[in-house]
Specification:
Layout (H helix, E strand, L loop, with lengths): L7 H10 L3 H7 L23 E2 L6 E2 L8 H13 L3 E5 L5 H15 L3 H5 L11 E5 L13 E7 L2 H7 L5 H25 L6 H7 L2 E9 L11 E4 L5 E6 L5 E4 L5 E3 L7 E5 L1 H6 L9 E3 L7 E9 L5 E2 L3 H7 L7 E2 H9 L16
Parallel strand pairs: 1-10, 2-3
Antiparallel strand pairs: 3-11, 4-5, 5-6, 6-13, 7-12, 8-11, 8-13, 9-10, 9-12, 14-15
Helix pairs in contact: 3-7, 4-7
């Protein structure tokens, strides 16, 4: 029986509650964007004259161990203090694995809806895996044009036991092969502000690790929709693999938006809110968003690194001593996380929760 997509409750249930996703809409023959997905004018992304940003020039991480160490360190620091995002090559993750990741993401989302819907939050057999559409669709003015699966890491055994079969092996390898690079970048940024984190503290600040696979189905009217709304990530660092279609935008200091073009073999690294808080605002979490496209279905695969829920976050003492003021208060990361996930994307507004009174 045909689904009546004119009824918004029926549409919402079909896409979100039943787990058909945005992909299910397209697969059903939908040729126009339904009203619940049409964004307010202020949130739409104009693409014809989109500029590219400095992150178009990748940083060669292999040079960190050679005579160009200082130069590479400066590049990482400058990007983290300004845009909050940069691209890296020679990052230690094999190029073959990057291609396998994109293939496995397409394989997961190509499954019949019932195979994916078993991972819906309300019914998922494991707290480690969640499948869904948009960020918080129940609270959003307009739903984001994105389906996703998120895989929380605890240990290898549980990942291999619970993560979805089509993508578990490559997702786990991606996570494990990226962590050395992530720790190295954090060490560079900490050293720049005169901080040396003990191993236990470093592990606590990056104790939550998650791999997401995002799927942005081809959209009949990209100018009406967004793949992901304006936001910054809540954690320490995010590592992102883009496919060749592109669509990632970062907000510049002047309020304009610039595209971070996909580069073959590169990974995008962006600063999260936690790192901005720890550095007392020295490093800037990247405000970013994603446009949709009618060129084909796009995938992206981010790794999120964030503190353990029980970890306290706040400006580091060494930095406060230098700055003479703490711009953020100390709080449990769990409280920051609950606030972050409790509201729709709205730029960097989530940081207000941590600002000093």
């Amino acid at each position: 029986m045909a689904v009546n997509f004119e009824d918004q409750t029926t549409l919402f249930n079909f896409v979100v509650k039943q787990g058909n996703g945005v992909k299910g809409l397209i697969d059903s023959g939908m040729s126009c964007v339904p009203k619940p997905f049409i964004q307010p004018l202020s949130e739409r992304i104009a693409t014809p004259n989109a500029r590219t940003c400095e992150a178009a020039q990748p940083i060669d991480l292999s040079q960190l161990d050679g005579p160009h160490h200082k130069e590479v360190t400066k590049q990482i620091v400058k990007a983290s203090e300004t845009l909050g995002v940069f691209q890296v090559v020679n990052h230690g993750v094999s190029l073959e694995l990057l291609e396998l990741l994109k293939t496995s993401a397409h394989e997961f989302f190509a499954q019949p809806p019932e195979k994916k819907a078993i991972y819906l939050k309300e019914v998922s057999p494991s707290k480690l895996v969640k499948y869904g559409t948009s960020f918080v669709p129940e609270k959003e003015k307009a739903i984001e044009w994105k389906d996703y699966v998120s895989m929380l890491y605890t240990n290898d055994r549980e990942a291999l036991q619970h993560w979805p079969r089509p993508c578990r092996d490559v997702a786990l390898e991606f996570l494990k092969s990226s962590m050395e690079m992530v720790k190295r970048v954090v060490e560079v940024l900490m050293e720049n502000i005169g901080v040396r984190l003990e191993e236990g503290r470093m592990n606590g600040l990056m104790g939550t690790k998650m791999v997401n696979m995002n799927y942005y189905p081809t959209c009949p009217s990209p100018e009406l929709t967004i793949g992901v709304g304006r936001h910054s990530d809540m954690g320490m660092l995010t590592v992102l693999l883009q496919d060749g279609i592109g669509g990632l935008y970062v907000k510049l200091d002047n309020g304009e938006w610039a595209e971070i073009p996909p580069l073959d073999g590169a990974l995008v690294v962006n600063v999260g809110d936690t790192l901005q808080i720890l550095s007392n605002g020295r490093y800037k979490s990247a405000e970013h968003r994603v446009r949709t496209t009618n060129m084909g279905s796009r995938v992206s695969i981010p790794i999120f690194t964030a503190p353990n829920p029980s970890e306290k976050i706040g400006p580091l003492p060494e930095v406060v001593k230098r700055d003479g003021v703490a711009r953020y208060k100390e709080l449990l990361f769990q409280d920051y996380m609950y606030n972050f996930f409790g509201q729709p994307h709205d730029g960097k507004k989530s940081l207000d929760f941590a600002r000093a009174d």
